[in-house]
């Protein structure tokens, strides 16, 4: 085996290790996001205002129900944007 071949093997193995570290980070973030989403669903029933804000759209007819939590989505979006901006700046 030549030195160039050994060098290529070492470089490729470090690339694979870096990609595995990146994958591990992505899985950790995805797991934390699912945990937070589950917590919101769990707490959602216990918070009387959650999903019932004045900007939420609710249409109920005899055989039809339509619900779109517009104000709730906007508040969650603003809170997540602030959180990610604070965590992203280091």
- Give the strand order of the largest sheet, numbering strands 1, 2, ... along the chain: 1-2
Total tally of structural domains:
2
Characterize the main sheet: 2 strands, antiparallel
Low-confidence stretches: none
- Let me know the number of strands: 2
Distance from N terminus to C terminus (CA atoms, Å) equals 45 Å
What best-fitting shape do the alpha-carbon axes yield?
Answer: elongated
Average pLDDT, to the nearest integer? 79
The helix-strand sequence is: HEEH
Total number of helices: 2
Share of β-strand residues: 5-15%
The radius of gyration over CA amounts to 23 Å
Which structural class do you get from the secondary structure elements?
Answer: mainly alpha
What percent of residues adopt helix (DSSP H or I)?
A: 55-70%
Please provide a written account of the structure.
The chain is 68% helix and 9% strand. With 90 residues, it is mainly α. The protein folds into two domains: 44 residues; 43 residues. A two-stranded antiparallel sheet has the order 1-2. Strand 1 and strand 2 form a beta hairpin. The mean pLDDT is 79.
Can you tag this structure with a few keywords?
mainly alpha; 2 domains; elongated; 2 strands; 68% helix; two-stranded antiparallel ribbon
């Amino acid at each position: 085996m030549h030195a160039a071949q050994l060098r290529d093997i070492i470089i490729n193995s470090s690339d694979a290790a870096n990609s595995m570290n990146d994958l591990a980070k992505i899985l950790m973030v995805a797991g934390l996001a699912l945990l937070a989403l589950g917590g919101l669903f769990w707490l959602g029933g216990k918070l009387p205002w959650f999903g019932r804000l004045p900007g939420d759209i609710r249409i109920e007819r005899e055989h039809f129900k339509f619900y779109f939590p517009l104000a709730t989505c906007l508040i969650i979006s603003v809170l997540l944007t602030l959180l990610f901006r604070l965590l992203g700046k280091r």
